[in-house]
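Troubleshooting entry. The earlier prediction with nicotinamide-adenine-dinucleotide gave an output that would not parse, so I re-checked the input for stray whitespace and re-submitted. Clean input:
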Amino acid sequence: MTTTVGVIGLGNMGGGMAATLARHDFPVFGFDLSQAARDKAAAAGVTPVNSLTELLAKSDVVILSLPKAEHVERLCLGGEDAPVSDAAEDHKAESLLALARPGLIVIDTTTSTPETSRKVAAALAKRGIDFIDAPVSGGPKGAASGSMSMVIGAEDEVLARAKPVLEAMSGSRVHVGRCGAGNVAKIANNMLAACHLISTAEAVAMAARAGVSPEKLLEGVNAGSGRSGASQVMFPNWVINKAYDSGFSMGLMRKDVGLASDLAQQLGMELPLANAVAQLWNESRATLDDSEDFCAIVQRTDPTLFGHGA
Ligand code: NAD
């Protein structure tokens, strides 16, 4: 029997995931509060629906790609406490807990919190609905091409049932533990990405001041032991060419940096390097809006070398 998939949140990542699954011949239904996002998904072979009720009636597996943990909690469990956009007011009464059928599998690809994943999973389990956290890396290009990576928190049996959908939408999957573990791994990953962007900017700026061009320095670093996602992907694609169009916003990366600080604090851990980096991301609010590209953080290190006008 053909598995039908519903995607909730058709933004930079969810839109690409929905299109990828449609290309793999899954019947895909998409819901987003934004009409523009629904129209874009329709052009990519996704059937847009106008409500959560309609989406749940049609889907065996539901994928979430929402901005933050609070959006996931509100959508799954309902309630008034979580902040959402004005457009969500119309859908306030709708929640997955109230509307979904037993047997549904929910794959949450949002970069969320481990506690939210566990809380939502426990509540949905009482109604026979399975929930796994499978946050992703690889950006909008990775989502649209099906090459993104996933770190997954799930029970073995649920993961086995979700496998065909997960394999179609991603290039690599690492099962890191039970529900919540996916978000622990993703938060750790993005803590590293936040550090690497700034440390690579400092290395590139220092070498440039000493007479080595950014292009040549990156070639050397990428052949050596200083390489990272920042030096191999972010600088060549979005920084050196000053495009700053990765499709990942400053606001969402600040959220992830905050999630890492919160997790370390909950665990009673002192992480001096991560703390210093988090402070730089926080201070950057004074000059860089949440809507900017996350790579623009490097402009603080050397505005002349990395700035738009340079
Ligand atoms: P985005 O802002 O482009 O998309 C989010 C979408 O969710 C929007 O279209 C919004 O209208 C929709 N939405 C919000 N609340 C909704 C609701 N209640 N019902 C239906 N739709 C709703 O964000 P994005 O860049 O696609 O990121 C999504 C998630 O993936 C975030 O958690 C982010 O941290 C993570 N992520 C993003 C990237 C990236 O490169 N953009 C990479 C890895 C992980």
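This one parsed fine. The chain has a mean pLDDT of 95.
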